[in-house]
Amino acid sequence: MNFDIDKIRNDFPILKETIYNKPLVYLDNAATTQKPQVVLDKLMEVYTKYNANIHRGVHFMSNKATTETETARKIIQQFLDAPNSHEVIFTRGATEGINLVAQSFGEQFVHPGDEIIVSEMEHHSNLVPWQLMAEKRGATLKKWPFTQAGELELPVLEKLISNKTRIIAVTHVSNSLGTINSVKEIIEIAHKRNVPVLIDGAQAVQHLAVDVQKLDCDFYVFSGHKIYGPTGIGVVYGKEQWLNQMPPYQGGGEMIESVSFEKTTFNQLPYKFEAGTPNYVDTIALAEAIKYVNELGIENIAAYESELLIYGQTKLLTIPGLEIIGNAWNKASVISFNLKGLHPFDVGTILDKMGIAVRTGTHCTEPVMQHFGIPGTVRASFAFYNTKQEIDELYKGLLKVVELFK
Ligand code: PLP
Questions:
Q1: What is the CB < 6 Å shell around ligand 1?
Q2: What pLDDT, on the 0 to 100 scale, is given for residue 57?
Q3: Where are the domains of the chain?
Q4: Nearest atom (ligand 1) to Cα of 364
Q5: Which residue minimizes the CA distance to atom 8 of ligand 1?
Q6: 278 close to 90: Cβ distance less than 8 angstroms
Q7: Are 314 and 365 within 8 A, CB to CB?
Q8: Catalytic: 364?
Q9: Predicted pLDDT of residue 377
Q10: Which atom of ligand 1 is nearest the CA belonging to 225?
Q11: Is domain 40-294 in CATH 3.40.50.300, yes or no?
């Protein structure tokens, strides 16, 4: 494969760090990803060369920052294959994006007695906002359960949809199980019943090609920091037909057309949903991260990470007492597991002392843990800069943990 791993690793300065005098093995990419030098340089460039508030200035720096921000919007439009750049709204992250849609869509379209369908494998960010909205609007939240393998079954969804269903919210890729959901089929089923769908792409855009037109999703959200961009920036793609009908999520500067004490009229898309000074610096740097990903090629990334996943799963399963949680046939490069008789927290703490960063706990998916009756899992999640050697380090580390607790 056309993938120069040494060069790639060189692009990420943090990967050269040592932790407790051991080379860093960073396997916590589902929580956040590391940043390539081009992204770090871009942040520095904006702050040192043209930092100025956007959209309202007449001076050079403000115009430059505005142009860069709007170019970033176009880069993200192309990345998602969204029909229009004004359907791309910048938020603080996936969480804020889902809250925006839940509150605003809910206010316009959800009424007492209506139903919202959310899957059992959602991150709390794609569950709690719907709970809050359902409570406010007098609607009911319906759970779409997953199987023991960690898969969502389409016939179950068909039965769940009723003439009261107003929206379905489902993750593209599960952060705790790794499952890649059949979102295209889900959307087809929903649309046959005239129900819109929000896809949580927080764990998807960094691993697989996303085309919102092919998917025909109504809303798609993701976070910049999980795709090698900065923290504090995220994206909502929404179909114009919905966004135009939805009320603003927050009030403030920039989202207005005119204001008087008697009446305020609102700006057009996307600004209607971008109240206040936007996070233009991180927006511009996010575009740099997307360009980096585009240059590597998302198909190449997917193929390489799939190799890592297969290698990792095969190797880890040879460890006595290791059980993988989440065995869907179609998975992203996430391995959630437990060692028999050991608390995930203990496993993670010992691995840390070896310089190996994994996540432990519920991964903000408590209903997933409740489904399996477990306190949590250890989660190793791989990015394109990880290597089989690093998986070997994880394997050796886990063997030591097993030995220690014998
Ligand atoms: N959705 C999924 C599937 C996630 O994994 C996460 C974060 O881990 C989120 C939503 C929330 O993302 P953020 O905390 O960046 O808003």
A1: 93-95, 123, 125-126, 171, 175, 200, 202-203, 223, 225
A2: 80
A3: 5-30+298-405, 40-294
A4: 8
A5: 31
A6: yes
A7: no
A8: yes
A9: 98
A10: 15
A11: no
